[in-house]
Structure formats: structure tokens, C-alpha cells
Specification:
This protein is of the alpha/beta class. It contains seven helices and five strands. A five-stranded parallel beta sheet has the order 2-3-1-4-5, with helices on both faces. Helix 1 packs across helix 7.
């Protein structure tokens, strides 16, 4: 089983890349488990999404806490051995949405408790590009989707990615270029 993480800021292309990879692997006869966070099929994921549309410091912490609980739930319930590939979208970098210095503490604690991989991709999009995509594609903005919040969160997420085993990919590039880069890193374990 190959464990893959695709993470990044809002509108970095995580879902698009995860779905493209899922389709590519499935079309080549591989079994793939794909899990998005926060998810809609459990209390923690639903609460995390609910708090993303709230305001205030307590909503900020609640969104991050429920998000982390949703991820832990996914890890515990994931049928790991049944699949050739497991792809988690939004994983450790949800901690970057916490205020300083809590985000670092939460990241290190969380990273010590959950599985990690040599295939953890951080899709790095500039805040300006992320914000442009958000305004184009969304009817309603989450609490972290202002240009200023995206700038703050990106700096924190990049600082975390630099201390972990993250593969940082420029996600300002066209979708196909990002997809090729992800596959290039995965090439040794694709065995197609």
C-alpha cells in the first residue's frame, strides 16, 4: 500500500489533483481509497465545515479541532490493507490555520500521532492566485479565504512543509503541469 497526501491552501488544486490521480491509478487497474477532509459523512467533518463559515476566535479553534478529529477518524477507519493506494486530501496542514504559536505545537503533536509518507505533496499556490480562484469559483467564502488570511496561512504552512518530508509543488502552474510533477515523484511506486 502506498500512502499519498495532497495538501495545500484553499484553491490550490488539491481536490482536482487527487481526483486526477485517483482516475489515473484506477484506470491502470489499481485499487485506490480516496478521502477528503473535512468530510461530509461524520459528525467531526460536518462540524468542521460548519465552523469554517463562522467568525471569531472560538470558531477558528473549533474548525481546526473538528478538522483534526475528522482526520484521526479517517485514519482509524481506513481499510488500509484493501487498497494499493490510499490518498488523503487535507491532512497535516490543517494545523497551519491555527494562530501562532499553536499551529507549530499542533503540527508536531499531530505529525507524531498519525502516519506520514514519503509522498506528502504540498501544493503551493500564491495567495493572490488562490484568492482569484476562490472569487471565481465560490459563492460563499470561508473564514480563512480572505487575501490576508491566505497570506498568513501560506507562510505558516510553508514553514511546516520545510521541516517535514513534504514535496512542495508550484500550484500556480497549469493543472496538467502539476499533475505531471506529482506523477514524476510517484513514478518509483507506480508499478503500472
Amino acid at each position: 500500500m502506498v500512502f499519498i497526501v495532497i495538501d495545500g491552501l484553499d484553491a490550490s488544486g488539491k481536490s482536482t489533483q487527487a481526483l486526477n490521480l485517483y482516475n489515473f491509478l484506477s484506470n491502470n487497474g489499481k485499487t485506490v481509497y480516496l478521502r477528503f477532509h473535512p468530510s461530509n459523512d461524520n459528525f467531526f467533518g460536518v462540524k468542521a465545515k460548519e465552523f469554517l463559515y463562522s467568525r471569531g476566535r472560538s470558531a477558528h479553534f473549533a474548525a481546526a479541532l473538528f478538522y483534526m478529529l475528522d482526520v484521526v477518524r479517517s485514519i482509524l477507519l481506513c481499510p488500509w490493507r484493501r487498497y494499493d493506494y490510499v490518498i488523503f486530501v487535507r491532512y497535516l496542514m490543517g494545523t497551519a490555520y491555527l494562530p501562532s504559536p499553536f499551529y507549530r505545537i499542533a503540527y508536531h503533536l499531530f505529525a507524531s500521532l498519525v502516519p506520514t509518507s514519503n509522498f506528502m505533496f504540498f501544493l503551493d499556490v500564491t495567495p493572490e492566485e488562490a484568492y482569484r480562484r476562490i472569487l471565481k469559483e465560490r459563492k460563499r467564502l470561508e473564514m480563512f479565504e480572505s487575501l490576508e488570511e491566505l497570506k498568513r496561512t501560506r507562510l505558516k504552512a510553508l514553514s511546516l512543509a520545510s521541516i517535514g518530508r513534504w514535496i512542495i509543488i508550484d500550484a500556480d502552474k497549469p493543472i496538467k503541469d502539476v499533475e505531471r510533477e506529482i506523477r514524476r515523484f510517484l513514478n518509483p511506486c507506480l508499478s503500472l
